[in-house]
Amino acid sequence: MTKIFIGSDHAGFELKSAIHGELLLEYTITDCGTNSTDSVDYPIFAHEVAKNVLLNTGSIGVLICATGIGMSIAANRHRGIRAALCRGVKDVKLARHHNNANVLVIGATYSHPDEAVEMVKAFLATSFDGGRHEKRINLLDQ
Question: Among the options 47, 98, 112, 133, which is catalytic?
Answer without folding.
Answer: 98
